[in-house]
Backbone:
């Protein structure tokens, strides 16, 4: 039972953290929770579908369907996160500059709400399908059955607990600093996801260069431990990354950071519509 | 804006997909592992170092398995009664562990490149 709990919990951590961060980022926006929970629901439904058609997916694209699916989902999530951060860089600044634009900042926040809700959906879709397949396997093979299944469900519950802990931890931060903290969190999160996406493209054999291992710190902190997994999601930690993963990680960090800085400066140059 | 991104992204994905269908999956010599009763057979497989190869993993169990190797950077679900193939790029001589993540107690083995 403990084994199953750990397997499922390990898969659920990433999605759990992402849900928690998104809930904290979108707190105060009207309908934020509805959007986020709709994302959770859609992701879970999608995960069941993916698990159901795992066979078809694996065999598609000359056997690379799974890798391409994962790589695309991760890339999509990176784009959504980057877009959110770049938008908020502009409006976060306005928010602190003048009180009158609060309404506008909130309105623009709502635009990226859909993007963030889909990031939640994509995270649950990806990790959830693995959990669903694991639990299905337990039922299908019928050996250890019941208590393994229970362990799995407990693992899921722990994943949900991670969401709540992340959310309550983040909202303790004063609003002004929260914006800065979550912007950085999202930037690192996106860089980590981009590196994972690159790894799947390498696994599929789509990218055959830069496969050299950058470093091996698995002896110190394995990706498979709970702490390793948390850091894997939050800052994109990997114990044996490829050169390409490292490069993609750095590039994503730099791109999101520069684009955010650039848009944060832009409003001064644009004619401002005054009420 | 979102519409634009979606369109661009779909374009990129279609390009990527058409590229995949044109690349062949097999490279070098082919080695086969089978998984039965959540155990790998053989549990130790020896391949030539510094030479690209293809690894086929056949899951003969009724349950899906996640084939995972951190040192080989492989992570893939193999549905019940099916197989997956992996391109192994030229490896330095050494031992590369792999596991079936869903049944890690029994499903473990290593690939030896020499």
Residues:
């Amino acid at each position: 039972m403990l084994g199953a709990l750990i397997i499922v919990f390990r898969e659920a951590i990433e999605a759990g953290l992402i849900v928690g961060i998104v809930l904290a980022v979108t707190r105060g926006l009207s309908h934020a929770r509805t959007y986020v929970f709709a994302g959770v629901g859609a992701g879970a439904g999608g995960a069941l579908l993916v698990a159901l058609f795992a066979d078809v997916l694996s065999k598609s694209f000359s056997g690379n369907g799974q890798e391409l699916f994962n790589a695309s989902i991760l890339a999509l999530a990176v784009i959504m996160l980057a877009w959110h951060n770049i938008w908020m860089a502009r409006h976060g600044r306005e928010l602190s500059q003048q009180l009158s634009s609060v309404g506008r900042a909130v309105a623009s926040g709502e635009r990226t709400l859909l993007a963030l809700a889909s990031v939640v959906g994509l995270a649950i879709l990806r990790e959830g399908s693995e959990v669903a397949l694991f639990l299905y396997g337990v039922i299908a093979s019928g050996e250890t059955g019941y208590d393994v299944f229970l362990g799995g469900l407990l693992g899921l519950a722990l994943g949900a607990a991670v969401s709540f802990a992340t959310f309550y931890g983040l909202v303790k931060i004063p609003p002004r600093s929260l914006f800065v903290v979550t912007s950085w969190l999202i930037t690192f999160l996106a860089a980590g996801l981009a590196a994972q996406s690159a790894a799947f493209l390498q696994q599929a054999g789509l990218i055959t260069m830069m496969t050299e291992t950058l470093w091996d710190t698995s002896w110190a902190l394995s990706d498979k431990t709970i702490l390793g997994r948390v850091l894997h999601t939050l800052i994109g930690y990997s114990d044996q990354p490829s050169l390409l993963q490292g490069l993609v990680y750095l590039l994503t960090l730099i791109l999101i950071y520069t684009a955010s800085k650039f848009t944060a400066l832009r409003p001064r140059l644009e004619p401002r519509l005054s009420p | 804006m979102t519409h634009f991104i979606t369109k661009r992204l779909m374009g990129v994905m279609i390009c990527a997909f058409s590229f995949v269908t044109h690349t062949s999956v097999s490279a070098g010599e082919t080695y086969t592992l089978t998984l039965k009763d959540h155990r790998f057979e053989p549990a130790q497989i020896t391949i030539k170092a510094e030479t690209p190869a293809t690894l086929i993993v056949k899951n003969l169990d009724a349950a899906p398995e996640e084939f995972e190797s951190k040192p080989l950077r492989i992570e893939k679900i193999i549905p019940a009664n099916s197989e997956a193939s992996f391109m192994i790029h030229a490896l330095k001589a050494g031992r590369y562990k792999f596991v079936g993540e869903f049944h890690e107690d029994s499903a473990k083995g290593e690939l030896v490149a020499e």
Q: What stands out?
A: The interface with chain A takes residues 1-2, 5, 9, 13, 16-17, 19-21, 23-25, 27, 61-66, 70-71, 73-80, 82, 84-87, 89, 101-102, 104-105 of chain B (CB under 8 Å).
